[in-house]
Design a protein that fits this description.
Length: 91
């Protein structure tokens, strides 16, 4: 669902980005790894997509410089972010 010709992000995608931008982040310890069962946030371009972030319910993971490498960030309010992302996903 598109909102206008100028805003080319789907409404759920924009809501997710707004929820992510509404947090401040700190880096967790480097030996922490993403937990299974999270939500992959993908950017779609034409027929292809790429993972731009992964939310495991506690940390936001961003792709590192190498394939398969992830950099974790802890949001200022993980419970609120998790609640927001789950409500968007369940719409």
């Amino acid at each position: 669902m598109w909102t206008s010709a100028q805003e080319r992000q789907p409404v759920p995608g924009r809501a997710v980005l707004n929820a992510l931008r509404g947090q401040t982040y700190t880096r967790p310890l480097p030996f922490v790894r993403p937990a299974a069962g999270g939500v992959a946030l993908r950017e779609v371009s034409g027929c292809s997509s790429r993972c731009i972030a992964y939310w495991d319910g506690k940390h936001l993971w961003l792709p590192g410089e190498k394939d398969g490498q992830w950099q974790g960030c802890r949001p200022s309010n993980p419970d609120k972010l998790s609640e927001t992302l789950n409500s968007i996903q369940n719409k």
